[in-house]
Design brief:
Helices cover 75% and strands 3% of the residues of chain A. With 351 residues, chain A is mainly α. In chain A, helix 5 packs across helix 6 and helix 10 packs across helix 11. Chain A starts with a helix and ends with a helix. Helix content of chain B is 36%, strand content 25%. The chains are: A mainly alpha (351), B alpha/beta (248).
Chain lengths: 351, 248
């Protein structure tokens, strides 16, 4: 990998911006390193702050989920309303294995979560991908809601009450990960793995194909691509990662319910990706952080609005934030940041 | 006599009550430079869409190098050596020039399913992209986002994309439409330099381009072949003049 990077610059002096890109890439590694460092240090410094660590765990799980959706929406350009299906399938896979099949094994639960979500994505994707535009949207929504209704009615899946279960015991390096902080570290590791994994995928030829499909699927066909297969692979990959997020959440809370399959969950992840900046992995993470953090702030507030408190109006607040972003910052927080950097550079050049 | 690269037999395309292509038969020999001309609405672009597979036929057959491709989807026809450009620029706008060509080259070289290595690290893919960019005169524009190119340069990327899939037959749909005089000249040079065993079929309004490039011309009118012949024959044909003057 590294030899090619240098080769590029030497072989082809005609492409100067490449050099800039390489420097920018190093900067992003530095920033990423700092964020990871902060994530690791936080619980060590504030070990008593269980609320904060709990919240960070939720944020990171949401971020993994958002990353999976960005692959489908931001990179492949498929506006799916069914990403919650794979999150929910993962959650149920992990939870039901413990509660219904009485196999209390953490690793197996995670594995089952990923496997079931992938198979679900393969099956649902197989049908959804045959359509496009509005029909694709409606079909992903319909299939997802179908799964939700089944889970909501079926006793096996806990119907409307959900299924609580005893979290499986597991330990790494002699530390029980059932404790909050070790579990948090485990989620941090999963998050980093997913982020780096997706970064590699997106830089690969396969990732280029996804971007090509997003930009102009007709043209992809005209250069000889059978685009359907690529979209299906992307679906399965995103499904697997969403399943991991769902499984982690179930194992974190010791509970799994039909709501994890609800379309509101698909909507939430869409909002995260849009607010953060679609088509950038960093954007999905920023979006997940932003949404979950603001949610925790507002849901903890007791500011009265009429007969309610602000906490009851969380979705209204989210809706307003969403509208403001769609109208004034369609490229999300990351897009906003990029355009600010560009303006500063222009201003510097003028001087 | 050279083999037939493309054989179109009695092809029809019906849009509701309108017969856009109404029984066209023609054959193009390997290495030939064939121009398709005709007044607006003659069905030239529709004809291209039928040959490339973007539209399905109502009737008739299409053969590519002896293979019947009538019911083969367009992406497979590309793999049989048929490549095209579009009348209106039809590119990957958020990607750089390099990445646009890369998509076509990596498809041709079969690396598209690789998820682990950076796309730019494939040496042979890279070499071919740079070669094609050089051929179409975009060697120093590789890292520019296609959306930021001039219209004429975008037309060059169109050609680059079509060339990247190693075509045996290349369909060019108005390659110089909307170009300045200098850009047009450059495009003519580019087309003239294409390998002589490559079969070319070109739709073009600009007669200067048509006469500079083609060695045989098919005139379409109202979805049918009005006449065929060498450039001088077509130029002398009274009916062709009538059709064109009638349009003006």
């Amino acid at each position: 990998m590294s030899e090619s990077q240098t080769e590029v610059a030497v072989k082809n002096p005609a492409l100067p911006p490449q050099a800039n890109r390489r420097i920018a890439f190093k900067w992003s590694w530095l920033w990423g390193g700092l964020v990871v460092l902060a994530l690791v240090i936080y619980p060590l410094v504030n070990s008593a702050d269980t609320y904060g660590i709990n919240l960070l765990t939720q944020i990171l799980i949401a971020a993994i989920f958002a990353l999976s959706y960005d692959l489908i929406f931001g990179y492949t350009g498929l506006l799916s309303f069914g990403q919650a299906s794979y999150y929910g399938l993962g959650a149920f896979g992990a939870g039901l294995l413990v509660s219904r099949f009485e196999i209390s094994n953490f690793w197996l639960s995670l594995l089952v979560a990923i496997a079931i979500a992938s198979v679900g994505a393969l099956i649902l994707g197989f049908f959804s991908i045959r359509t496009s535009g509005v029909y694709f949207m409606m079909l992903t929504l319909a299939l997802a809601q179908m799964l939700f209704s089944i889970a909501f009615k079926w006793e096996f899946t806990g119907s409307s009450d959900g299924v609580p279960f005893t979290r499986p015991e597991f330990s790494l390096f002699g530390v029980s990960l059932k404790e909050l902080t070790p579990f948090y570290f485990f989620v941090v590791a999963c998050f980093i793995l997913c982020f780096i994994g997706l970064t590699v995928v997106i830089r690969s030829p396969f990732g280029q194909v996804l971007k090509g499909i997003r930009d102009n699927e007709e043209r992809m066909t005209a250069v000889g691509y059978q685009t359907r297969n690529f979209k299906l692979v992307a679906f399965v990959l995103a499904g697997a990662i969403a399943g991991l997020a769902g499984g982690l959440n179930a194992l974190f809370t010791g509970f799994v319910g039909a709501n994890s399959l609800n379309w509101i969950n698909s909507g939430a992840v869409l909002v995260m990706v849009l607010l953060g900046g679609k088509g950038t992995l960093v954007g999905s993470v920023v979006g997940a952080f932003f949404v979950i953090y603001i949610q925790s702030l507002i849901q903890g507030s007791t500011i009265p609005i009429g007969n309610y408190t602000l906490a009851d109006r969380w979705l209204t607040v989210l809706g307003l934030i969403f509208m403001i972003f769609v109208l004034f910052a369609p490229n999300g927080i990351v897009g906003l940041g990029k355009s600010m950097v560009r303006r500063v550079k222009e201003w510097q050049q003028k001087r | 006599m050279a083999a037939e690269a493309l054989k179109v037999s009695n092809v029809k395309k019906q849009f509701g009550a309108l017969a856009a292509i109404d029984g066209v038969t023609l054959s193009v020999k390997q290495g030939e430079r064939r121009a398709i001309i005709g007044p607006n609405g003659a069905g030239k672009t529709t004809f291209f869409n039928l040959v490339s597979g973007a539209l399905s036929l109502t009737a008739g057959t299409i053969e590519l190098n002896g293979t019947n491709v009538t019911s083969i989807p367009s992406w497979k026809r590309v793999r049989l050596g048929l490549s095209r450009t579009f009348q209106r620029n039809n590119l990957f706008l958020s990607l750089s020039v390099y990445e646009n060509v890369q998509l076509a080259v990596q498809r041709e070289m079969g690396t598209s399913y690789n998820m682990l290595r950076p796309a730019r690290s494939f040496g042979d893919v890279r070499a071919k992209i740079l070669d094609i960019l050089d051929k179409v005169g975009l060697a120093d524009r590789g890292d520019i986002e296609v959306a930021n190119l001039s219209y004429g340069e975008q037309r060059q990327v169109e050609v680059a994309l079509a060339l990247a899939s190693e075509p045996k037959i290349l369909l060019l749909d108005e390659p110089t439409a909307g170009m300045s005089l200098t850009e047009t000249r450059r495009m003519i040079d580019l087309i003239k330099k294409l390998p002589s065993d490559l079969t070319l079929m070109i739709v073009e309004h600009d007669m200067e381009v048509v006469f500079a490039i083609s060695d045989y011309i098919t005139v379409l009118h109202l979805g049918q072949v009005l006449t065929e012949g060498t450039p001088s024959e077509v130029q002398a044909d009274q009916r062709v003049r009538e059709v064109y003057l009638g349009e003006e």
